[in-house]
């Protein structure tokens, strides 16, 4: 601000009337806008990084699930049938026929 301008005069007049130790300062709106835009840009940079991280974790989870389904020799456990729940365990067809 130029010392002879209206803004300079207003700035000086307001500063002289503020009590000492109040902790109030005068800042130009351009400075406030530039600082807020800088913080806004930083916020969106963090958001982009977090979205990328979430996509990588999701891809890793889907990829490992697909690998688990295709692994040779790995079978999912079969849920117990009615016979096993009733306490009868048949290990072969002969056992089943013998029990009948």
List keywords for this structure.
100 residues; mainly alpha; 0% strand
Total DSSP helices = 4
Q: Uncertain spans, ≥5 residues at pLDDT below 50?
A: none
Structural category: mainly alpha
Average residue-wise pLDDT:
78
Shape: rod-shaped
Distance between the termini: 103 Å
Q: Classify the oligomer.
A: single chain
Q: How big a fraction of the residues is strand?
A: under 5%
Instruction: Spell the H/E element sequence.
Output: HHHH
Q: Helicity level, as a percent range?
A: 55-70%
Major sheet: size, sense and barrel closure? none
What is the CA-atom radius of gyration, in angstroms?
37 Å
**Number of E-type strands:** 0
